[in-house]
Amino acid sequence: MTMPTLVLASASPRRRQLLEMLHLPIVVQPADVQEIPLPREAPAAYSKRLARDKARAVPGLLVLGADTIVVLDDTILEKPVDADDAVRMLMMLQGRTHTVITSICLVANGREHEAVDETQVTFRAADEDWLRAYVATGEPLDKAGGYGIQGWGAALVERIEGDFFGVMGLPVRLVLALLADAGVEYRFGK
After folding, report:
1. Please, which residues have CB within 8 angstroms of residue 8's CB and are 6 or more apart in sequence?
2. Of 34, 37, 150, 165, which is least packed with CB atoms within 10 Å of its CB?
3. Rounded mean pLDDT, 23-34
4. Over the chain, what is the mean pLDDT?
5. Cα–Cα distance, 119 to 132 (Å, whole number)
6. 181 noted as active-site residue
């Protein structure tokens, strides 16, 4: 049986890369969803709602929505608005442990399948000049929390406890589990 085409409701090049790494047939159709937390909405509930809203916003028989946020002391750190905002976020994170929450929602034949990954990431201590040099690479400007663990941002990390791919923005093991739950079997090969 041929794997059906998966519609990725995200513009994230990292999510696309991870799905392509698995040789899943995909088409990218980013969802246009407003990303604003509701009053008193818990971070995990916010991320889960956004993943669901993204998956619902795009037509298709098999649609995957995802959302990644960084949480420090119940404060959500999303994508920085500019370089100064990225430095501000990184200064808050340096020398501390934070949580990266990635929620996914798979809409398959009108039915929703959801999962949430939470990974603890501890940053090394760093000074502001070093963090500004990292921000100057441009890498952190489109990433939750202002860093990318799969690039130069790896130099910021002391350790992770959990799923590396979840920190990148798409917990592969959970995607495969949701596909299986929806009756879509993943097979190795093209």
Report:
1. 15, 16, 19, 26, 27, 28, 29, 64
2. 34
3. 96
4. 95
5. 25
6. no
Identify which of 54, 50, 86 has the alpha carbon closest to the alpha carbon of residue 69. Answer: 50
162 and 117 Cβ atoms separated by less than 8 Å = yes
Q: What mean pLDDT do residues 80-88 have?
A: 97
- 11-17: long-range pairs with CB below 8 Å, 24+: 12/66, 12/169, 12/170, 14/148, 14/150, 14/168, 14/169, 14/170, 15/66, 15/169, 15/170
What pLDDT does residue 2 have?
A: 75
Classified by CATH at the fold level, domain 6-181 comes out as Maf protein (3.90.950)
Closest CA to 97 of 168, 42, 157: 157
Domain ranges of the chain: 6-181
Given 67, 74, 84, 129, which residue is catalytic? 67
pLDDT for position 189: 74
The tens digit of pLDDT for each residue in 41-70 reads 999 999 999 999 999 999 999 999 999 999
The pairing of beta strand 6-8 with beta strand 111-123: unpaired
Reported pTM = 0.94
CB-CB contact of 93 with 145 (8 Å): yes
pLDDT band per the 50, 70, 90 thresholds, residue 3:
confident
DSSP string over 26-63: EEE--------PPTT--HHHHHHHHHHHHHHHS-SSEE
